[in-house]
Amino acid sequence: MLFTIKVHNAHPSYQFYRSLISLTTRSTASKRLNLRRHYSSETARKVIFSGIQPTGVPHIGNYLGALRQWVRLQEDAEPSTQLLFSIVDLHAITLHQNAEELRQRKRETLAALLAIGLDPERVILFYQSEVAAHANLMWILSCTASVGYLSRMTQWKTKQTQLDNAAALDSDMKSELKLGLLAYPVLQAADILLYRTTHVPIGPDQVQHMEFARKNARIFNTLHGEIFPVPEIILSPAKRVMSLKDPSLKMSKSHKDTDSMILLNDSSSSIQNKFRGALTDSETGGITYDPVNRPGVSNLLSIMASMSDNNNNNNNRGRSIEEIAHHYRDMKILDLKREVAATVDSGLQEIRSRFERLLQPEQGKYLDRVAMEGKEKASRLADESIKNVHRTLGLG
């Protein structure tokens, strides 16, 4: 039911209140217009943001799927483009973490980002937890985020299905469903929108989360004016790197068998041994690229094609996977494994050397300085952004 209040023009204070309301409305509209003008002038600048969880030393799946693209964005972006790459440690604590181990993994991740070629003078490298505005904006976005939408996220549904199956045996398993896992995409959206990001480099498995971030931007803009750019996706062109022990699964640190992955700091002998033990097949008809029927061999060829680009002297540099498969068509699988191992080892040599040097005790102050300067730069941008959001909401 709609209630209306009638105000008679004859009341002596009517004109005064009407003038006051009109003045307040014009003032609010003017402030919002000025805010929009401020934001529209900023929008012309491209802002690229992405993050990586602090799992320690990245594996070649992380590197080829995301991190190498960050370096190329750094090299190819216009000087006016702002690049921010965060070690998203708040996301890591959706699972229980040992405090000392987490600190060490954060440091290793930072060293790895520097070792692959990211330049802290060109990009902003920082720990997510050291910029308080991330959690601040997450709460604000949570107030308009749909629980129904969040519950349809693949990550949540997978966990829920696993626990539903386990609950048949253990009724207490439902308690394993944590709010942090459900709200994870809201924090991810806050990470992105906080810096008025225009472009986000991701892999195919992150598209759903990116669409949620875009949805949050549109909802907020509809309610409060054009505050956030709706970020665009930069989809990684790299093929997914699969596990060496089960090529039906993505290479991941969640796998218990450490031989299923190649870390960026693996030694030459370790790389050789891991590829020698990689699961392939028993076909004797030579080397072919057939991801459906020969996933193990196809994964090796894909890795070789991707890693060949890291070495200017590699004969396979610039060749497609199919061309490489044709080149090695008469080779035995064991010999192919040796070739792939040599290619990967050569491609990681400089990265491995820089990484080991950065983790030497005498380099500790340098890592601390990079982290501190990144925190300060990110915080300045984040504080300005969250203040504008607060003003828009009436919180400041």
Q: Indicate the mean pLDDT.
A: 87
Cross-sheet strand order for the largest sheet: 1-2-3
Low-confidence stretches: 1-41
Gyration radius, in Å: 26 Å
The total count of strands amounts to: 5
Between the first and last Cα atoms, what is the distance in angstroms?
Answer: 34 Å
Reading the helices and strands in chain order gives HEHEHHEHHHHEHEHHHHH
Q: Report the sheet-strand fraction.
A: 5-15%
Structural class: mainly alpha
Query: Counting H and I runs of at least 4 residues, what is the number of helices?
Result: 14
Please give the largest β-sheet.
3 strands, parallel
Helix content: 40-55%
Would you spell out the secondary-structure blueprint of this structure?
Layout lengths: L13 H30 L3 E6 L7 H17 L5 E6 L1 H4 L6 H17 L8 E4 L5 H10 L4 H5 L2 H14 L11 H15 L5 E4 L4 H18 L7 E4 L32 H9 L18 H14 L12 H7 L5 H26 L5 H30 L3
Parallel strand pairs: 1-2, 2-3, 4-5
